[in-house]
Amino acid sequence: SKKLVAQKKKKGERERREMTKGTSSFGKRHSKTHTSCPRCGKISFHFQKKVCSSCGYPSAKMRRYNWSNKALRRRTQGTGRMRYMKSLPRRFKNGFREGTQAKSKAIAGAEA
Hints:
Number of strands: 2
Order of helices and strands: HHEEHHH
Structural class: mainly alpha
Oligomer: single chain
Number of helices: 5
Strand content: under 5%
Radius of gyration: 32 Å
Strand order of the largest sheet: 1-2
Largest sheet: 2 strands, antiparallel
């Protein structure tokens, strides 16, 4: 019976010891490494390094790699407001005219 008690103790000790990398370790995570980036707005700005892992802020050039096509697609031309680009086809069609006034439809209808 002494052997049985010794075996049970050993078994109990194993259960108390933390041998896992999983569930029990996740409960200890309470410090944040990343916060929101001033440039891209993602939660990718590293507190200690002071660098964004997504856009590369504060470097002047945006971080981009061809090995991640999806990431390029998410922030390429045409994903934002396109304040300048969206009016280009219409302006091109009219020869980039500026400073002119369109004829009123009443006058144009009377002439025809």
